[in-house]
């Protein structure tokens, strides 16, 4: 038998997702006779390869194999020996019986096609998700037709190449004859089969799709010390009822399962008294933490009142930035006297607080509406200020009870004594909410200029309601829709400090002093409110941060009994959980609701992730001005009600877009979100949207296929840094090889309103030439790729592969081999989702025409059809614009790249040519405009490096730079003389680097910070900047240095670490991050210049590693020296290598101090580095705000 492929990464991935992963021969050997072999002498090569490459994966919840497989459709197995049974496998509390060895051959009754059809029909009837049944469905009245052969009620709506290959394969037919019906049916219906494809991949044949198992992997049991199992994140706890199988519901043993006494399924007798102590919890690898799992070591160990973090507070103490094993800071604890075992039941036991949610900034983004008032459906507004209302509030906050709509009868539940005593405090909270003057507080803390507030209007003074029902925002004065009015309104946003003042005033009026317990707890929560407002667009505030340093003992309302002095550990943890639940509700429900009620929160184009708070009255005026300008600039036709009804009846469903605006420094940018369908009700909206999205993705894949097959269709388009690098290198290297470079003329042109100005008729002609609807037919295969990263994370991606019948790979094995040969696939599992063998170009072109000509935009409650341009929110927009302008370049500028280069990134043109007349002609053509393609230059963004006569451009003149300069284009700086490329950091000028940085802190924020910085560094250190081919002047070394924004990014990450982590607590970790940054920079430099010697002994060579380290350390020192208080413990080590602080924390690193590097580098090299680095770096750091 041929040797099985290794595919170690694939095997490791499967072993992590299944109970057992066995070769097919091993699986069958455990069922069959000892003297029988699955592979025999003389078997076909295909059958031998199938047995060698097939893996049988047993799911965690799989039923045991047939105890007595008959290998027939009906009947029992012949030839069983008598005697005691023998074990097949054992584990996880179950023991599966193994049938005895067989004496007689294994008869086979069904043919392979019958068996596969029978399995597919059973899967469809059960509604099971199985790769084998993809593309099959049960017959219904609306979709009739003949059933699939050998089935009674199954139809095939999409080809399934894996199933078709299986039922027509001779190797699988021989396998059926060897193992029989029962075993192969069990393999196809109850197990998952994978076929290995050398050298390193596999594809799935049957079983639940692997990507579904990856999403639910947290719920499966995991191994731990002692032979028991536990769910991820849940730990075994001693309690009043013993420990079952944590991580899964209790169930009765199935047939053939034998429970062992004292195993995982046993239950000890109930304790006579409640146990107040906690057994030391164990992590996933058996490490036992301390008794109080919510606290870090330190002073708080002796003070039970202070709640401290478990992960981030201790992470910086480890040399690798790691923390102790994952623990649960507040485990689910039960009644008043003991600890409950963890359960997967959706409802929470009585007395047990529900799960706590993260407070996220996305919860209060883009809340439209002009009325500044709380929603009447808000929980506090819908409850009466009485004990009954307080009880419903307590049930909602602590017990996870969902509020019911008014008029629905509600049965009062009996509360535990702890929550029953809370009712007076929460009744006081409801009374405070009724008396709170939200309108007056809003006017006091976030006032508006007199010109904005309409005369005679006033904010609503009644509590909890907001603005009066008859109040309307002030109308924009007629004739004042110009840019000055727009800029004036944009400046009227409320600062985060003003918004914080409003929230602080509301919270102090709302929350009774008894709920805070002490001023310390109140100040801690207000500090978290301030932090929430300062987070970016993707910011989150974890429950651990909300409860950090909160004093539980100060809150008398958390006590289980009024006079208890001794607080057991279980009781203290229950109090922590109850307080955490209240704080999470207060932040995630009340604070978020106040922000949603009074402010429109959005990001901007110039501050990226930073949030701006506009009062809704101001934003309604801004939106009305923006809508008016958008209607004037874009050709829109309003739809009547009859048109809307007609569009609702059309099939397929049409997309409708919602318009929103993002502030710019001097205006508003319209953003179109295509996420809805015209006429789709709530029940069918998701299905219609998914179908339409799938069709659009197929069209996008086909256009990309034609782009790759015929690159000339795109003209000079570049779709990313890799394309720019290839085109620029192809232009620069021959030019340098010819000798001295002649003067070059640069022209940069930006098209005004590119997406909105494309003529739809001309665009249709261009796309018809691309797709050729009357000639082409495409084969589209949808598949998923599951890979395991080097750090153990599972990555899933869903892709489409387009081909024609000339290059079609019909079988999955050929397809996977082709992907591996192309270099786009390695160490992955491929799951085919569907395969359409006849996607007609005509149907795709009709879909394109409907998307363009019937694009519906919802603006202000009205529906419009866009008569010109393409929707900006679609994935097709960039590609359509590139095809259109590529056709224009092929028509108007066929020979312009002779001796030069023309690049275009969507709508930004760049021409570099040694011929001045050609450059002027190109500029003149685009400034005058090309109406056939809707192309007109925006002179405010047009730049040249040569003098231009105003008369030739109609009296207008673009920006003129010197002949030798750093020419800006699309975030790059091009040296007009040396043709070197640098990164343009001007976009960071005057802004905080924190506004462009987001990283998920998670449970290990230090580790995530290091990964984020290195990942961004890898993106910034592109080959376009690190290519050393040709002479690299030493003056350009300062432009190479690690990305200049990476050092301020390091400082921003340090400031964002949770729990106020000081650098001095773990300086070795931060020094290691700096050392890794230096080594990663030089490693990327070597990778981008493979085959080139960069350094030699004595720090010589074009770019030795010592020079890279010096540049990196010098850049860090320039930045960190401006924050001496924060980084005082790092500056000495970076300058001289002094490590006086390392007596307690020894640090061994590859980091070499700058003083040592200065002694290693030659004097000439060091002088050139200092001259090149100091001016550029200092100027960049001064423009970036902290």
UniProtKB/TrEMBL annotation:
GO cellular component, one term: telomerase catalytic core complex
UniProt GO BP: telomere maintenance via telomerase
UniProt main location, coarse: nucleus
Name of the top EC class for this enzyme: transferase
Catalytic reaction equation(s): DNA(n) + a 2'-deoxyribonucleoside 5'-triphosphate = DNA(n+1) + diphosphate
Region ranges (Disordered): 222-356, 451-481
Domain Reverse transcriptase positions: 643-974
InterPro entries associated with the record: DNA/RNA_pol_sf, RT_dom, Telomerase_RBD, Telomerase_RT, TERT_C
Record remark: domains: The RNA-interacting domain 1 (RD1)/N-terminal extension (NTE) is required for interaction with the pseudoknot-template domain of each of TERC dimers. It contains anchor sites that bind primer nucleotides upstream of the RNA-DNA hybrid and is thus an essential determinant of repeat addition processivity. The RNA-interacting domain 2 (RD2) is essential for both interaction with the CR4-CR5 domain of TERC and for DNA synthesis.
Family that this chain belongs to: Belongs to the reverse transcriptase family. Telomerase subfamily.
Role played: Telomerase is a ribonucleoprotein enzyme essential for the replication of chromosome termini in most eukaryotes. Active in progenitor and cancer cells. Inactive, or very low activity, in normal somatic cells. Catalytic component of the teleromerase holoenzyme complex whose main activity is the elongation of telomeres by acting as a reverse transcriptase that adds simple sequence repeats to chromosome ends by copying a template sequence within the RNA component of the enzyme.
Name under which the protein is recorded: Telomerase reverse transcriptase
Native organism: Monodon monoceros (Narwhal)
């Amino acid at each position: 038998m041929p040797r099985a492929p290794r595919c170690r990464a694939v095997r490791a991935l499967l072993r992590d997702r299944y109970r057992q992963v066995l070769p097919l021969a091993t699986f069958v050997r455990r069922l069959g006779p000892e003297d029988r072999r699955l592979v025999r002498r003389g078997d076909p090569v295909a059958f031998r390869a199938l047995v060698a490459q097939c893996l049988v994966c047993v799911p965690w919840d799989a039923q045991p194999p047939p105890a007595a497989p008959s290998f027939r459709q009906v009947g029992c197995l012949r030839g069983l020996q008598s005697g005691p049974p023998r074990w097949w496998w054992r584990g996880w509390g179950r023991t599966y019986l193994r049938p005895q060895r067989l004496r007689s051959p294994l008869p086979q009754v069904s043919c392979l096609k019958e068996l596969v059809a029978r399995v597919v029909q059973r899967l469809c009837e059960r509604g099971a998700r199985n790769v084998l049944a993809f593309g099959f469905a049960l017959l219904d009245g609306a979709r009739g037709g003949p059933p699939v052969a050998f089935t009674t009620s199954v139809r095939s709506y999409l080809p399934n190449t894996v199933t078709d290959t299986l039922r027509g394969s001779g190797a699988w037919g021989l396998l059926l004859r060897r193992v029989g019906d029962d075993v192969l049916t069990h393999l196809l219906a109850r197990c998952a089969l994978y076929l290995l494809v050398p050298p390193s991949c596999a594809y799935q044949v049957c079983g639940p799709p692997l990507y579904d198992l990856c999403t639910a992997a947290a719920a499966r049991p995991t191994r731990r010390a002692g032979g028991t199992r536990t769910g991820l994140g849940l730990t075994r706890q001693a309690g009043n009822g013993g420990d079952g199988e944590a991580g899964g519901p209790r169930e009765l043993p199935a047939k053939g399962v034998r429970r062992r006494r004292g195993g995982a399924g046993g239950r000890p007798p109930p304790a006579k008294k409640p146990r107040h102590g906690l057994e030391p919890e164990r992590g996933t690898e058996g490490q036992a933490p301390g008794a109080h799992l919510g606290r870090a070591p330190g002073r708080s160990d002796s003070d039970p009142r202070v709640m401290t973090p478990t992960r981030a507070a201790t992470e910086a103490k480890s040399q690798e930035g790691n923390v102790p094993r994952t623990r649960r800071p507040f485990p689910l604890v039960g009644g008043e006297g003991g600890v409950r075992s963890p359960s997967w039941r959706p409802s929470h036991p009585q007395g047990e607080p529900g799960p706590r949610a993260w407070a996220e900034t996305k919860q209060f983004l883009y809340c439209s509406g002009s009325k500044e008032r709380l929603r009447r459906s808000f929980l506090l507004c819908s409850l009466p200020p009485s004990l009954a209302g307080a009880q419903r509030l307590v049930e909602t906050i602590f017990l996870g009870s969902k509020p019911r709509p008014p008029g629905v009868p509600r049965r009062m539940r009996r509360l535990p004594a702890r929550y029953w005593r809370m009712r007076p405090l929460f009744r006081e909270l409801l009374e405070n909410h009724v008396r709170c003057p939200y309108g007056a507080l809003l006017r006091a803390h976030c006032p508006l200029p007199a010109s904005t507030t309409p005369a005679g209007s006033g904010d609503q003074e009644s509590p909890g309601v907001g603005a009066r029902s008859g109040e309307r925002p002030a109308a924009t004065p007629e004739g004042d829709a110009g840019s000055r009015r727009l800029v004036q309104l944009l400046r009227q946003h409320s600062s985060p400090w003003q918004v914080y003042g409003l929230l602080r005033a509301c919270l102090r009026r709302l929350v009774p002093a008894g709920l805070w317990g002490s001023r310390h707890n109140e100040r801690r929560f207000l500090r978290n409110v301030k932090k929430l407002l300062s987070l970016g667009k993707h910011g989150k505030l974890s429950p651990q941060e909300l409860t950090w340093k909160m004093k539980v003992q100060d809150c008398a309302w958390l006590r289980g009994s009024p006079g208890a002095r001794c607080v057991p550990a279980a009781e203290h943890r229950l109090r922590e959980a109850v307080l955490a639940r209240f704080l999470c509700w207060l932040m995630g429900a009340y604070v978020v609701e106040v922000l949603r009620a009074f402010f429109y929160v959005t990001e901007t184009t110039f501050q990226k992730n930073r949030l701006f708070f506009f009062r809704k009255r101001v934003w309604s005026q801004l939106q009305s001005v923006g809508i008016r300008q958008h209607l004037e600039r874009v050709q829109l036709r309003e739809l009547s009600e009859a048109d809307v009804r007609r569009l609702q009846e059309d099939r397929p469903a049409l997309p409708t877009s919602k318009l929103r605006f993002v502030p710019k420094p001097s205006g508003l940018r319209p953003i179109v979100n295509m996420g809805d369908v015209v006429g789709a009700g709530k029940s069918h909206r998701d299905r219609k949207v998914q179908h339409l999205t799938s069709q659009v993705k197929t069209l996008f894949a086909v256009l990309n296929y034609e782009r790759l097959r015929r690159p000339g269709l795109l003209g000079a388009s570049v779709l990313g840094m890799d394309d720019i690098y290839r085109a620029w290198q192809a232009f620069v290297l021959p030019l340098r090889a010819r000798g001295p470079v002649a003067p070059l003329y640069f022209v940069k042109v930006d098209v005004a309103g590119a997406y909105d100005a494309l003529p739809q008729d001309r665009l249709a002609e261009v796309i018809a030439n691309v797709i050729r609807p009357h000639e082409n037919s495409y084969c589209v295969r949808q598949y998923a790729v599951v890979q395991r990263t080097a750090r153990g994370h599972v990555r899933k991606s869903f892709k489409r592969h387009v081909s024609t019948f000339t290059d079609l790979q019909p079988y999955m094995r050929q397809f996977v081999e082709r992907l591996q040969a192309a270099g786009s696939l390695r160490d992955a599992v491929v799951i085919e989702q569907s395969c359409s063998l006849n996607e007609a170009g005509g149907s795709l072109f009709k879909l394109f025409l409907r998307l363009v000509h019937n694009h519906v935009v919802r603006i202000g409650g009205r529906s419009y059809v866009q008569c010109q341009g393409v929707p900006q929110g679609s994935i097709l927009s960039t590609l359509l614009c590139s095809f259109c302008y590529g056709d224009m370049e092929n028509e108007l500028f066929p020979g312009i790249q002779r001796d030069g280069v023309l690049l275009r990134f969507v709508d930004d043109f760049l021409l570099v040519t040694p011929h001045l007349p050609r450059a002027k002609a190109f500029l003149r053509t685009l400034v005058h405009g090309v109406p056939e393609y809707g192309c007109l230059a925006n002179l405010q963004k047009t730049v040249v490096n040569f003098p231009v006569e105003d008369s030739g451009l109609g009296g207008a003149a673009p920006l003129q730079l010197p002949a030798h300069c750093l020419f800006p284009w699309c975030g790059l700086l091009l040296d007009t003389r040396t043709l070197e490329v640098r990164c343009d950091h001007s976009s960071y000028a005057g802004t905080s680097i924190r506004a462009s940085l987001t990283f998920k802190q998670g449970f290990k924020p230090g580790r995530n910070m290091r990964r984020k910085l290195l990942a961004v560094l890898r993106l910034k250190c592109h080959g376009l900047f690190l290519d050393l081919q040709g002479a690299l002047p030493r003056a350009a070394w300062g432009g190479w240095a690690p990305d200049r924004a990476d050092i301020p990014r390091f400082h921003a990450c340090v400031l964002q670490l949770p729990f106020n982590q000081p650098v001095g607590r773990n300086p070795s970790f931060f020094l290691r991050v700096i050392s890794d940054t230096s080594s990663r920079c030089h490693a990327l430099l070597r990778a981008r210049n493979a085959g080139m010697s960069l350094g030699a002994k004595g720090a010589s060579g074009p770019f030795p590693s010592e020079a890279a380290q010096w540049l990196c350390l010098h850049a860090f020192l320039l930045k960190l020296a401006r924050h001496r208080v924060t980084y005082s413990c790092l500056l000495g080590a970076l300058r001289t290598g002094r490590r006086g602080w390392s007596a307690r924390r020894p640090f061994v690193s590859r980091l070499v101090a700058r003083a040592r590097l200065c002694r290693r580098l030659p004097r000439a090299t060091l002088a050139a580095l200092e001259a090149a680095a100091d001016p550029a770096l200092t100027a960049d750091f001064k423009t970036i705000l902290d």
